[in-house]
Amino acid sequence: DAMVIQNPRYQVTQFGKPVTLSCSQTLNHNVMYWYQQKSSQAPKLLFHYYDKDFNNEADTPDNFQSRRPNTSFCFLDIRSPGLGDAAMYLCATQGPQETQYFGPGTRLLVL
Amino acid sequence: QQQVKQSPQSLIVQKGGISIINCAYENTAFDYFPWYQQFPGKGPALLIAIRPDVSEKKEGRFTISFNKSAKQFSLHIMDSQPGDSATYFCAASRASGTYKYIFGTGTRLKVLA
Description:
By secondary structure, chain A is an all-beta fold.
């Protein structure tokens, strides 16, 4: 059974039009992560939550925001997507010990 | 100090051969070293992981070798199969409230039938 679910799997948006990606997890863990992964690159951590505490990476653009209304759900908001934001967005949660479990990702296309 | 260096960038192996991917780290505070496998269009999936208190861990055809003094670890895929063709990422993290990963740059493996 999937532990991390992401919707939609594919998202097309227009340049500058806000978009929201969603993630849910069934492990009921207090930690969740959002990564951006561009083609042929490693996942790049954007931010993470420890419970309700939001932790932004220093180089994450202000254009990226997140919300976590409860333990299970987390959202990634891109306020004004640019062409450079086209990427795969990965959500992850913490499993046993230090293991991170990733969702299938949302492929974002910006036109 | 936060980098994890991974090599090679790409690897082609014949079916039945051994695939070897290497990673090196600098921060001695790291104490958890996972390997992830990623197929195109999918999220990374945990393959195998090791802690510094052991020098080797084996799960099926996959083995991690760990050299603490050299600050290096490697993934060996025995009897490589075409289905193993994917991108492999090593990572490192240290125990804390959140285990933030530092990923290597990835190795694209192709196993020829």
